[in-house]
Write a structure and sequence with these properties.
Layout: H1 20-48, H2 57-79, H3 86-114, H4 126-154
Helix pairs in contact: 1-2, 1-4, 2-3, 2-4, 3-4
């Protein structure tokens, strides 16, 4: 701890958070945890919300949102100390949740072209696994972008 700064830490003051090694470690830890928590979120979503009829766009977007927020929550274990302020942590989580939503939707549309008999509402389907993986990747990529933007804005 620096005597001048009091309660702030040195690793947050320099370019450590934007270094390639730290970001790679955060991704290596964040993506698997995001996948696991997104899978758990998908299970809870399947329990709470019954499978909708085909073409129910609201249920589809809600399921993607649950996967995105779950992936963001799981990935936050790797990103919890990226910012000193509570606003930075909440902003990182919200931005990561949006990234998980976008990643899940992209994975759904890309995976739907390559997978036979796509069904998002059965846990064992390949498309569901693809969407969970896409949400985890999207959440962590958006967290990297937010972290890089925050470290460049501070310094």
């Amino acid at each position: 701890m620096d005597k001048k700064s009091g309660s702030s830490f040195e690793y947050r003051k320099d370019d450590v958070n934007s270094s390639f090694g730290i970001l790679a470690i955060r991704l290596a830890v964040g993506v698997p945890l995001a996948i696991v928590v997104a899978f758990i979120g998908n299970i809870f979503n399947g329990i709470m919300v019954p499978s909708p009829a085909a073409g129910d766009d609201f249920a589809f977007i809600f399921r993607m949102m649950v996967l995105g927020v779950s992936a963001s929550t799981g990935g936050m274990v790797a990103w919890f100390n990226a910012f000193e302020s509570k606003f930075g942590g909440v902003g990182l989580w919200a931005f990561g949740g949006f990234g998980g939503l976008i990643g899940g939707i992209i994975a759904y549309f890309v995976g739907g072209h390559f997978i036979d008999h796509p069904d998002l509402y059965i846990l064992n389907q390949q498309l569901t696994q693809t969407v969970i993986f896409g949400a985890a990747i999207g959440s962590n990529v958006f967290a990297v972008a937010f972290s890089l933007y925050g470290s460049k804005r501070i310094s």
